[in-house]
Predict the structure.
Amino acid sequence: MMSIFKSCKHYFFSFFLILLCLGTAKYASAADGYYYQLKVYHLKTSAQEDRLDSYLKNAYLPALHRMGIKNIGVFKAIAADTSGKRIYVLIPYRNWSQLEKSDKKLMDDQQYLTDGKDYLDAVYTAPVYNRMETIVLGAFPKMPEPAVPELTANKTDRVYELRSYESPTEKYNVNKVQMFNDGNEVALFKRLNFNAVFYANVIAGSHMPNLMYMISFENMEEHDKHWKAFGSDPYWKQLSAKAEYQNNVSHIDAIFLHPAAYSDF
Protein backbone atom coordinates (compact mmCIF):
# COMPACT_ATOMS: atom_id res chain seq x y z
CA MET A 1 0.00 0.00 0.00
CA MET A 2 2.84 2.34 0.93
CA SER A 3 4.57 1.68 -2.39
CA ILE A 4 1.39 2.60 -4.28
CA PHE A 5 1.17 5.83 -2.29
CA LYS A 6 4.79 6.67 -3.06
CA SER A 7 4.26 5.95 -6.76
CA CYS A 8 1.20 8.22 -6.88
CA LYS A 9 3.06 10.92 -4.98
CA HIS A 10 5.95 10.69 -7.42
CA TYR A 11 3.55 10.85 -10.38
CA PHE A 12 1.75 13.98 -9.18
CA PHE A 13 5.04 15.66 -8.28
CA SER A 14 6.39 14.92 -11.77
CA PHE A 15 3.17 16.19 -13.35
CA PHE A 16 3.40 19.40 -11.31
CA LEU A 17 6.98 19.94 -12.48
CA ILE A 18 5.93 19.50 -16.10
CA LEU A 19 3.17 22.09 -15.73
CA LEU A 20 5.54 24.44 -13.94
CA CYS A 21 8.11 24.12 -16.72
CA LEU A 22 5.47 24.69 -19.37
CA GLY A 23 4.26 27.82 -17.63
CA THR A 24 7.75 29.11 -16.91
CA ALA A 25 8.85 28.64 -20.52
CA LYS A 26 6.00 30.79 -21.73
CA TYR A 27 5.97 33.41 -18.99
CA ALA A 28 9.76 33.85 -18.94
CA SER A 29 9.61 35.16 -22.48
CA ALA A 30 8.57 38.52 -21.04
CA ALA A 31 12.12 38.85 -19.69
CA ASP A 32 13.12 39.78 -23.24
CA GLY A 33 10.22 42.18 -23.69
CA TYR A 34 8.28 44.91 -21.98
CA TYR A 35 6.27 44.71 -18.79
CA TYR A 36 3.05 46.67 -18.45
CA GLN A 37 1.29 48.13 -15.47
CA LEU A 38 -2.40 48.77 -15.98
CA LYS A 39 -3.93 50.94 -13.28
CA VAL A 40 -7.71 51.08 -13.06
CA TYR A 41 -9.15 53.89 -10.94
CA HIS A 42 -12.76 53.45 -9.79
CA LEU A 43 -14.55 56.75 -9.27
CA LYS A 44 -18.02 57.84 -8.23
CA THR A 45 -18.16 61.58 -8.85
CA SER A 46 -17.20 64.07 -11.51
CA ALA A 47 -15.21 65.96 -8.89
CA GLN A 48 -13.04 62.88 -8.36
CA GLU A 49 -12.59 62.56 -12.12
CA ASP A 50 -11.47 66.19 -12.41
CA ARG A 51 -8.95 65.81 -9.58
CA LEU A 52 -7.57 62.57 -10.99
CA ASP A 53 -7.31 64.07 -14.48
CA SER A 54 -5.37 66.99 -13.03
CA TYR A 55 -3.00 64.66 -11.17
CA LEU A 56 -2.37 62.41 -14.15
CA LYS A 57 -1.91 65.28 -16.60
CA ASN A 58 0.16 67.63 -14.46
CA ALA A 59 2.06 65.35 -12.09
CA TYR A 60 2.09 61.63 -12.85
CA LEU A 61 2.68 61.50 -16.61
CA PRO A 62 5.30 64.28 -16.56
CA ALA A 63 7.17 62.46 -13.77
CA LEU A 64 7.14 59.18 -15.69
CA HIS A 65 8.36 61.04 -18.77
CA ARG A 66 11.27 62.40 -16.73
CA MET A 67 12.16 58.77 -15.93
CA GLY A 68 12.34 58.05 -19.66
CA ILE A 69 9.02 56.19 -19.79
CA LYS A 70 7.21 57.06 -22.99
CA ASN A 71 3.86 56.37 -24.62
CA ILE A 72 1.66 56.23 -21.54
CA GLY A 73 -1.99 55.71 -22.34
CA VAL A 74 -4.85 57.19 -20.33
CA PHE A 75 -8.32 55.97 -21.26
CA LYS A 76 -11.95 56.38 -20.26
CA ALA A 77 -14.89 54.14 -21.00
CA ILE A 78 -16.96 55.06 -24.04
CA ALA A 79 -20.20 53.75 -22.57
CA ALA A 80 -21.37 54.50 -19.05
CA ASP A 81 -20.63 51.74 -16.55
CA THR A 82 -23.34 51.03 -14.00
CA SER A 83 -20.66 50.40 -11.37
CA GLY A 84 -19.28 53.93 -11.74
CA LYS A 85 -16.64 55.88 -13.65
CA ARG A 86 -13.26 54.35 -14.42
CA ILE A 87 -9.96 55.68 -15.72
CA TYR A 88 -7.40 53.26 -17.15
CA VAL A 89 -3.70 54.11 -17.18
CA LEU A 90 -1.34 51.91 -19.21
CA ILE A 91 2.36 52.26 -18.37
CA PRO A 92 4.98 50.42 -20.46
CA TYR A 93 8.27 49.48 -18.78
CA ARG A 94 11.31 48.36 -20.75
CA ASN A 95 12.20 45.75 -18.12
CA TRP A 96 11.24 44.49 -14.67
CA SER A 97 13.81 46.66 -12.91
CA GLN A 98 12.29 49.84 -14.34
CA LEU A 99 8.86 48.81 -13.08
CA GLU A 100 10.14 47.80 -9.66
CA LYS A 101 12.02 51.07 -9.08
CA SER A 102 9.43 53.48 -10.48
CA ASP A 103 7.57 54.16 -7.20
CA LYS A 104 10.77 55.00 -5.32
CA LYS A 105 11.87 57.31 -8.10
CA LEU A 106 8.54 59.09 -7.90
CA MET A 107 9.02 59.69 -4.18
CA ASP A 108 12.49 61.10 -4.91
CA ASP A 109 11.12 63.53 -7.52
CA GLN A 110 10.49 66.84 -5.76
CA GLN A 111 8.68 68.29 -8.77
CA TYR A 112 6.27 65.33 -8.70
CA LEU A 113 5.67 65.74 -4.96
CA THR A 114 4.81 69.40 -5.53
CA ASP A 115 2.69 68.95 -8.64
CA GLY A 116 0.84 65.94 -7.20
CA LYS A 117 0.17 67.37 -3.73
CA ASP A 118 -3.62 67.43 -4.05
CA TYR A 119 -3.63 63.72 -4.95
CA LEU A 120 -0.89 62.60 -2.58
CA ASP A 121 -2.23 64.50 0.44
CA ALA A 122 -5.91 63.73 -0.12
CA VAL A 123 -7.76 63.25 3.17
CA TYR A 124 -9.82 60.15 3.89
CA THR A 125 -13.06 62.15 3.87
CA ALA A 126 -12.42 63.33 0.29
CA PRO A 127 -10.46 60.62 -1.56
CA VAL A 128 -9.51 61.11 -5.20
CA TYR A 129 -10.82 57.63 -6.02
CA ASN A 130 -12.87 54.88 -4.38
CA ARG A 131 -10.65 52.00 -5.39
CA MET A 132 -7.58 51.37 -7.48
CA GLU A 133 -6.66 48.11 -9.22
CA THR A 134 -3.19 47.32 -10.47
CA ILE A 135 -2.60 44.65 -13.13
CA VAL A 136 0.93 43.59 -14.08
CA LEU A 137 1.53 41.98 -17.47
CA GLY A 138 4.42 40.53 -19.46
CA ALA A 139 4.62 41.14 -23.22
CA PHE A 140 4.13 38.29 -25.68
CA PRO A 141 7.22 37.14 -27.64
CA LYS A 142 5.46 37.95 -30.93
CA MET A 143 5.01 41.58 -29.81
CA PRO A 144 7.71 42.28 -27.20
CA GLU A 145 7.28 46.06 -27.37
CA PRO A 146 4.20 48.31 -27.30
CA ALA A 147 3.14 50.26 -30.36
CA VAL A 148 1.55 53.66 -30.83
CA PRO A 149 -1.42 53.12 -33.19
CA GLU A 150 -1.41 54.92 -36.52
CA LEU A 151 -4.77 56.65 -36.16
CA THR A 152 -5.83 59.96 -37.67
CA ALA A 153 -9.30 60.47 -36.17
CA ASN A 154 -9.89 62.90 -33.33
CA LYS A 155 -9.19 61.33 -29.95
CA THR A 156 -12.84 61.53 -28.98
CA ASP A 157 -13.78 59.36 -31.99
CA ARG A 158 -11.08 56.72 -31.58
CA VAL A 159 -11.94 53.33 -30.15
CA TYR A 160 -9.49 51.38 -28.04
CA GLU A 161 -10.68 47.89 -27.22
CA LEU A 162 -9.16 46.30 -24.12
CA ARG A 163 -9.78 42.55 -24.13
CA SER A 164 -9.25 39.98 -21.40
CA TYR A 165 -9.36 36.23 -22.03
CA GLU A 166 -9.73 34.13 -18.90
CA SER A 167 -8.90 30.42 -18.99
CA PRO A 168 -10.36 27.60 -16.87
CA THR A 169 -6.90 26.54 -15.58
CA GLU A 170 -3.28 27.69 -15.70
CA LYS A 171 -2.50 25.00 -18.27
CA TYR A 172 -5.27 26.26 -20.58
CA ASN A 173 -3.93 29.80 -20.15
CA VAL A 174 -0.49 28.63 -21.31
CA ASN A 175 -2.24 27.01 -24.28
CA LYS A 176 -4.09 30.22 -25.23
CA VAL A 177 -0.88 32.25 -24.97
CA GLN A 178 0.75 29.67 -27.23
CA MET A 179 -2.13 30.08 -29.69
CA PHE A 180 -1.38 33.80 -29.96
CA ASN A 181 2.36 33.26 -30.39
CA ASP A 182 3.14 29.89 -31.97
CA GLY A 183 -0.29 29.74 -33.58
CA ASN A 184 0.29 33.16 -35.17
CA GLU A 185 -2.91 34.75 -33.91
CA VAL A 186 -0.88 37.91 -33.31
CA ALA A 187 0.27 37.81 -36.94
CA LEU A 188 -3.35 37.48 -38.06
CA PHE A 189 -4.35 40.60 -36.14
CA LYS A 190 -1.39 42.43 -37.69
CA ARG A 191 -2.26 41.31 -41.23
CA LEU A 192 -5.82 42.58 -40.76
CA ASN A 193 -4.55 45.97 -39.45
CA PHE A 194 -6.02 45.88 -35.96
CA ASN A 195 -3.48 48.51 -34.78
CA ALA A 196 -2.55 46.65 -31.60
CA VAL A 197 -1.03 48.51 -28.66
CA PHE A 198 0.12 45.38 -26.80
CA TYR A 199 -0.44 41.68 -26.21
CA ALA A 200 0.52 40.31 -22.79
CA ASN A 201 -0.04 37.63 -20.21
CA VAL A 202 -1.26 38.70 -16.79
CA ILE A 203 1.32 38.10 -14.08
CA ALA A 204 -0.74 39.59 -11.25
CA GLY A 205 -4.38 40.64 -11.37
CA SER A 206 -7.90 39.91 -10.17
CA HIS A 207 -9.13 37.73 -13.08
CA MET A 208 -6.36 35.16 -13.42
CA PRO A 209 -5.40 33.07 -15.22
CA ASN A 210 -5.85 35.44 -18.14
CA LEU A 211 -4.18 37.32 -20.94
CA MET A 212 -4.98 40.82 -22.13
CA TYR A 213 -4.45 42.86 -25.25
CA MET A 214 -5.45 46.21 -26.68
CA ILE A 215 -6.40 46.98 -30.28
CA SER A 216 -7.53 50.28 -31.77
CA PHE A 217 -9.72 51.74 -34.50
CA GLU A 218 -10.57 55.09 -36.02
CA ASN A 219 -14.19 54.69 -34.92
CA MET A 220 -16.76 52.05 -33.99
CA GLU A 221 -17.71 51.45 -37.62
CA GLU A 222 -14.11 50.47 -38.39
CA HIS A 223 -14.13 48.27 -35.31
CA ASP A 224 -17.12 46.33 -36.61
CA LYS A 225 -15.59 45.95 -40.09
CA HIS A 226 -12.31 44.61 -38.73
CA TRP A 227 -13.94 42.02 -36.49
CA LYS A 228 -16.19 40.88 -39.32
CA ALA A 229 -13.11 40.34 -41.48
CA PHE A 230 -11.40 38.50 -38.62
CA GLY A 231 -14.31 36.12 -38.09
CA SER A 232 -14.49 35.18 -41.76
CA ASP A 233 -10.73 34.90 -42.33
CA PRO A 234 -9.73 31.40 -43.55
CA TYR A 235 -6.68 31.26 -41.31
CA TRP A 236 -8.74 32.06 -38.20
CA LYS A 237 -11.24 29.37 -39.09
CA GLN A 238 -8.41 26.87 -39.50
CA LEU A 239 -6.62 27.94 -36.30
CA SER A 240 -9.70 28.02 -34.09
CA ALA A 241 -10.75 24.57 -35.29
CA LYS A 242 -7.50 22.87 -34.25
CA ALA A 243 -7.99 20.23 -31.58
CA GLU A 244 -5.07 21.44 -29.47
CA TYR A 245 -6.62 24.89 -29.01
CA GLN A 246 -10.09 23.90 -27.86
CA ASN A 247 -11.66 25.07 -24.58
CA ASN A 248 -8.78 27.37 -23.63
CA VAL A 249 -11.00 30.41 -22.96
CA SER A 250 -13.71 30.39 -20.30
CA HIS A 251 -14.66 34.09 -20.24
CA ILE A 252 -14.04 37.18 -22.37
CA ASP A 253 -14.32 40.83 -21.34
CA ALA A 254 -14.20 43.59 -23.96
CA ILE A 255 -14.01 47.18 -22.73
CA PHE A 256 -14.41 50.05 -25.19
CA LEU A 257 -12.32 53.11 -24.39
CA HIS A 258 -11.32 56.46 -25.81
CA PRO A 259 -8.10 58.29 -24.92
CA ALA A 260 -8.06 61.26 -22.57
CA ALA A 261 -7.05 64.54 -24.20
CA TYR A 262 -3.67 64.43 -22.43
CA SER A 263 -2.98 60.75 -23.19
CA ASP A 264 0.26 60.11 -25.07
CA PHE A 265 -1.73 58.30 -27.77
Summary: The first helix runs from residue 2 to 27. The chain has one domain: 26-259.
